[in-house]
Specification:
Elements: E1 2-3, E2 7-9, E3 12-17, E4 26-29, E5 37-42, E6 45-50, E7 64-66, E8 69-71, E9 78-80, E10 86-88, E11 97-103, E12 106-114
Parallel strand pairs: 1-4
Antiparallel strand pairs: 2-3, 3-12, 4-5, 5-6, 6-11, 7-8, 8-9, 9-10, 11-12
Bound molecules: FE2/S2 (inorganic) cluster (FES).
Length: 116
Amino acid sequence: MEQKDVTLLAGELRLCRVDAVEDGEALRVEVEGRMPLAVYHVDGEFYVTDDTCSHGNASLSEGTVENGQVECPWHVGRFCLKTGSALTFPAVTPIRAYRTIVKDGAVFIHPEDSSS
Ligand code: FES
């Protein structure tokens, strides 16, 4: 699934409504002028990372989400959703993970406010 209706409000990017991402799933979000993002919903919490795997060009939003991690659909490298750390080979380079804000029924980030 893919979201394209992104809005910039007072320096925050509104990525999607919370009900656009089922618990245990991820949503790819296209943002004009930058790499796509992935919004994850895990046990009622929301996380946002860059969507493109650091090992190749796989879309992480098509991967498996569990235990606070995403597993890449191509070569099963795993990343921490909170920090973006690469956890298992062949993923060795972290991805950007963003501080995520949930308010007014939607998911926001500050575009430059990431873990790396
Ligand atoms: S493209 Fe993600 S682990 Fe290879």
